[in-house]
Amino acid sequence: MAQQERTFSQADYDFDALYAGRATFEGSEPGAGFIPWDIGEPQPVIVELARAGGFRGKVLDAGCGLGENAIMLASAGLEVTGVDGSPSAIEQARRRAAEHGVRALFKVADATELRDIGTGFETALDSGLYHCLNGEQRSAYAAALHRVCRPDATLHLFCFAESVPAGTPIAQEVLVSADDLHAHLDRHWRIEEITETAFATGFTRELLAEMWKAGAPDVVAAPDPDGLRVDERGRVLTPMSHVRARRR
């Protein structure tokens, strides 16, 4: 396997194949169904944001994946639409919502167009979609979000921060700078604040060490256990930028 195939990047993954179990995340055990960003529950940071009143009205979860964040928001009484480009992810999100007894709408949609998903959203959530897009796609995505959201709508965008530590299997190209965010968002969104937070992942220090031994990922250095933060459950925490923006 090429080293770069072991990293999060903009080109390596067929996300639908990964969600459907037809592909394996490189470095994990074959057949394990390991998806690093699926932790089987909503991201703790987004749960905290919801509790603090960060979401209102009609909510769009762009790049919803398997739907855990959307399901959490819908269970709080919000009208939520989750969209993703992967039909397999949307199918599983619908099933998870039904298992939770939660009403949420899930649709397959191209993030750069967001067609046929409705309009009038008052809050938009991006939980790790932006950094999967290239520059041209990011600009189109910002415009599409603008089109489907109401004037003065709030955008909460979470993307990989530049402070991701060496040894984490994340390609440099997906680490997002403030300049990049302003370049692609400013025409349609007024950035009010960019703060650093962290997302839980399915990685552990032990798993990353095993992946390195199996074939070093395309990162600067081998995993440094002391440089990787973990939560109380041993999950590696990935630094993320939380962008709060307002629709122009």
Keywords:
alpha/beta; globular; 248 residues; 7 helices
- Total helical segments: 7
Helix content: 25-40%
Model regions low in confidence, pLDDT < 50 over at least 5 residues = 1-9, 216-221
Helix vs. strand class: alpha/beta
Please tell me the overall pLDDT: 88
Question: How many whole angstroms does the radius of gyration measure?
Answer: 17 Å
What does it look like?
The chain has 248 residues and is of the alpha/beta class. Helix content is 27%, strand content 23%. It has helices at residues 15-20, 44-51, 68-75, 87-100, 135-148, 178-185, 205-214, and strands at 58-62, 79-84, 105-108, 121-127, 149-160, 189-200, 237-247. Strands 3-2-1-4-5-7-6 form a 7-stranded mixed beta sheet, with helices on both faces. Strand 2 (79-84), helix 4 (87-100) and strand 3 form a beta-alpha-beta unit. Helix 5 packs across helix 6 (178-185).
